Amino acid sequence: MAQNSFPSPISVNAEDLACERGGRPIFEGVSFSLSGGEVLAIIGPNGTGKSSLLRMIAGLLFPVAGSVTIKAGTQEEGFLHFLAYGDGLRSVFTVEENLKLWSRIYGGETGGEAIYDALEEVGLAHAMHLPARALSTGQRRRAGLARLVLSKRPVWLLDEPTSGLDRDGEAVLGGLMRTHLDAGGAIIAATHLTLPVPPTRTLELQ
Amino acid sequence: MSAFSAIIGQTVKASFRAGGGALTGLLFFLTVVTVFPFGVGPDLNLLARIGPAVLWIGVLLSLLLGLDRLFGQDREDGALELIMVSGEPLALFVFARAAGYWLAHGLPIVVVAPILGLILNLDALSLAAVTATLLVGSPALAMIGAVGGALTAGLARGGMLAAILVLPLSIPVLIFGVAAVNGAIADPDPFLAPFLILCAFTMFSAVLAPIAGAAALRLGLD
């Protein structure tokens, strides 16, 4: 992939974020900044708010205090990818149908060939016509990765991206992350494991 | 626009796949309406008089059946989060889901209703009036239902609660739907006025329900 395939500079800034869940403070005073080509790893033990922070950045959770600013050019259709436990795969549809739907919603490629190529990249091409209910946990993860391949978006938010993946799957994830970074994209990953790509910044929650 | 049609298409397709519920809804409608002549007895005039209301109530009830599936699955499998992250307006998503729900659950029932009207001893004019009012009125039921579905999306067995929430809100639609049919049959009563109000209900709900549904979904996610 060509250098800087995203038209304008990317930056993600969080200032003094605070989070409450069920009336209980989880974290406060969290700030970070990140630009294109960088990986931020959010680490820390269970229950310290890694996923909550990621959801806050995604706009799914409102911060009690502070703000998140994401600048990624003028792309009207949105600039985030969110990969989490909920993979949005509907069990009655085939893998191809599921990916096609998300591609249409995310403004990505929808052709059968593009979907096949994306699935081949994540090692799931053989399952293209299988219903999603037949997939294992790791295979569902890979299908999620194929979603990221199909529609190009500058900022990836990954929640425990390595969970459920075998060693080969981790290598696939690492390859995709590197390609995305080389293209000028940014990645924020919440994890308690080691990422296949060494993070350029680390944020520890406790 | 591609996202919009994709969601409508997915909703319709899922409704006809295994466990989708569109056929269950249709069969439920057939059963409810068929039970009435057995309960009311062989009084043909009485049947003809209450027939339009029976068909309307049948549609109302069977449109409640699939509400728990409307957004419940999106909540469970993370699709709702992905929609929100995608940057597409959530209200548009709710509208698309409700429209797809009506196409898969509502439209087949509207098509079958005049055939069932025959066993309720409805004449040709009543059949035409019932079908016309159902065609313009049932989308409002689907839209109102979508708000109930959105409110209860995160709850276990939310379908029952959705039905309880939605039924009172649907009463005006039912009243004007049946009033329009009666207006078409009985001479002094007007047809056009209640029919136009019914059309207005559908248009109002098509605008307001997606906004309300989106707010409910956003609230439920926190």
TrEMBL record, chain A:
One of its GO terms (molecular function) is ATP binding. SUPFAM superfamilies: P-loop containing nucleoside triphosphate hydrolases. This is Heme exporter protein A. Keywords: ATP-binding, Cytochrome c-type biogenesis, Membrane, Nucleotide-binding, Translocase, Transport. InterPro entries: AAA+_ATPase, ABC_transporter-like_ATP-bd, ABC_transptr_haem_export_CcmA, P-loop_NTPase. PANTHER family: ABC TRANSPORTER I FAMILY MEMBER 1 (PTHR43499:SF1). GO terms for biological process: cytochrome complex assembly. The lineage of its organism: Bacteria, Pseudomonadati, Pseudomonadota, Alphaproteobacteria, Hyphomicrobiales.
Automatic annotation (TrEMBL), chain B:
Keywords: Cell inner membrane, Cell membrane, Cytochrome c-type biogenesis, Membrane, Transmembrane, Transmembrane helix, Transport. The keyword Plastid does not apply. One of its GO terms (biological process) is cytochrome complex assembly. It comes from the Bacteria. GO terms for molecular function: heme transmembrane transporter activity. The chain crosses the membrane at residues 21-40, 46-67, 124-148, 160-185, 191-217. GO terms for cellular component: plasma membrane. It is a multi-pass membrane protein. Its main location: membrane. It is found in: Cell inner membrane. Belongs to the CcmB/CycW/HelB family. Required for the export of heme to the periplasm for the biogenesis of c-type cytochromes. This is Heme exporter protein B. It comes from Afifella marina DSM 2698.
